[in-house]
Design brief:
heterodimer, A: 257 residues, alpha/beta, Rossmann fold, six-stranded mixed sheet, four-stranded antiparallel sheet, globular, B: 265 residues, mainly alpha, MetI-like fold, 2 domains, two-stranded antiparallel ribbon, 2 strands
Chain lengths: 257, 265
């Protein structure tokens, strides 16, 4: 499958996310060091790096699951501040998929999907349910609507989690190691859904170690280590001609087997 | 191997039952001997009159029934207030508001670290004249405020036991804090909260007997009055003790049933 190349001379799409000299500390631990990143509408960014490098922390700052101490973050032109109302409004534009799925265990699959549209968007129940069924079909599990999350396999749960985020019709999707908690045979079904989403032009930031997926969908590869962005490049350059030694080492470790 | 062990364990059960029976008989013998020495005049035949009398074919309820009704009233109203107060204080303690957290903290420390009897006197002699409360409502509020402090900690523990990922998922979907509590966190926390909260309800029934010191006519006050009228302290207190037991044992069983069910899940 092919994606339209972002021609360097074409008019660039507007910025979806801009991160300016972001710093974050956990106590004395400097978790993020001077992060600068711009993601444009429709751009697909894959973030990789060793564990503890700050990948998750960075994307969790974008919907303010983590507070940043220094620097600025703009989402769709709105700056993230302490203002709770703004944060909630921004979160409705930004979907997130977690490593551990985080489905609501006391609600059925359908209720998991309709909760946010019903509450946050005050959507009528019938509309919310037909919307939910539409997305369940897209992730290919409409027949599981009446089940509880624990009755599903890991891959199915993660697809429900993706559908749940999509029900809010977000403009940006964040994926925080979405396949890391899955059994190997279930990874493909989740990646397939993500590739579909990428094909439709969703703005995405994915933290993942799935380099095959990265090559397929990424417009930009970002490599992080020790809390900073070491290298950021188009996948062709990134995989074939990494500039930094740290990137080379990481890629050799992750691609060697 | 089971075939060898089984007779042994049966034997030890029989031995245990025999031991228990011997102990009970011993206790009964000690009590009876002591009682014989006292020369106490047992008048059990008068006790039914304390429940009800039938005069000219009409049932007239006795003081113990009136007392029981008041006790049930006080505990039910207090229990409702306890649950509301406990939830509000727990949410305040978990809120982002510094003043809210300190308020909740101050309330918890003050109430949990002073005796209930002292609180009741303070409320009765100091606060109730100021706010114009009668004895009955002073009793209800004191109990609710006392038990509410413990209920708040039960709620808080239950809420904190809900995994962090549930909060993050709700937040990332753009749910407000209120919606997150109502639809995601509390429905999951309630399973953990229910058994200890029922236990708190049991404490409430037991603690309600203390309102007799401000002359609210609950079960225990009626009992004390009966004793001072009739000097039948053994019969009356035994009866009242049995009434509390009859009230509370079903609740205790309910707690173990709920706990058992939760563990099964």
């Amino acid at each position: 499958m092919t994606f339209p190349d972002t021609a360097p001379n074409a008019v660039q799409p507007p910025e979806a996310i801009r991160i300016d000299s972001l710093h974050k500390w956990y106590g004395d631990f400097h978790a993020l060091r001077d992060i600068n990143l711009t993601v444009r509408e429709g751009e697909r960014v894959v973030v990789c790096g060793p564990s503890g490098s700050g990948k998750s922390t960075m994307i969790r700052c974008i919907n303010r699951l983590e507070r940043h101490e220094q620097g600025r973050i703009f989402v769709e032109g709105h700056e993230l501040t302490d203002n709770t109302k703004d944060i909630t409004a921004i979160r409705r534009e930004v979907g997130m998929v977690f490593q551990q799925f985080n489905l609501f265990p006391h609600l059925t699959v359908l209720q998991n999907l309709t909760l946010a549209p019903l509450r946050a968007k005050k959507m009528p129940k019938r509309d919310a349910e037909s919307l939910a069924m539409q997305y369940l079909e897209r992730v290919k599990i409409p027949d599981q609507a009446g089940k509880y999350p624990t009755q599903l396999s890991g891959g199915q749960q993660q697809r429900v989690a993706i559908a749940r985020s999509l029900c809010m019709k977000p403009r940006i999707m964040l994926f925080d190691e979405p396949t890391s908690a899955l059994d190997p045979e279930m990874i493909a079904e989740v990646l397939e859904v993500m590739i579909d989403l990428a094909r439709e032009g969703m703005t995405m930031i994915c933290v993942t170690h799935e380099m095959g997926f990265a090559r397929t969908v990424a417009d930009t590869m970002v490599f992080m280590d020790n809390g900073e962005i070491v290298e950021s490049a188009a996948p062709g350059n990134f995989f074939e001609a990494p500039k930094s030694d740290r990137t080379k080492l990481f890629l050799s470790q992750i691609l060697s087997h | 191997m089971n075939d060898i062990q089984k007779p042994q364990s049966q034997q030890s059960v029989i031995a245990n039952i025999a031991m228990f029976a011997l102990l009970v008989l011993g206790c009964v013998w000690i009590v009876l001997r002591g009682e014989a020495g006292l020369g106490y005049n047992w008048q059990w035949y008068r006790v039914p009159d304390f429940f009800y009398r039938v005069i000219d074919g009409e049932v007239i309820w006795g003081p113990l029934i009136f007392g029981l009704i008041v006790t049930l009233e006080i505990t039910s109203i207090s229990l409702i207030l306890t649950v509301i107060l406990g939830l509000v204080v727990a949410l305040l303690r978990l809120s982002d508001s510094l003043s809210g957290r300190w308020l909740a903290r101050g309330y918890l420390e003050a109430i949990r670290n002073t005796p209930l009897l002292v609180q009741l006197y303070l409320f009765y002699f100091v606060l109730s004249p100021i706010f114009g409360l009668d004895r009955y409502w002073t009793a209800v509020l004191t109990l609710a405020i006392f038990e509410g402090a413990f209920a708040a900690e039960i709620f808080r523990a239950g809420i904190l036991a809900v995994p962090k990922g549930q909060w993050e998922a709700s937040a990332s979907l753009g749910l407000s804090r209120f919606d997150c509590y109502r639809d995601v966190v509390l429905p999951q926390a309630i399973r953990l909260i229910l058994p200890p909260l029922t236990g708190q309800g049991i404490s409430l029934i037991k603690h309600s007997s203390i309102v007799s010191v401000i002359a609210v006519f609950d079960l225990f006050t009626e009992a004390r009055n009966l004793v001072s009228d009739t000097f039948m302290s053994f019969e009356v207190y035994f009866t009242v003790g049995a009434m509390y037991l009859a009230l509370i044992i079903p609740l205790s069983i309910l707690v173990s049933v709920i706990e058992h069910r939760m563990r099964a899940k």
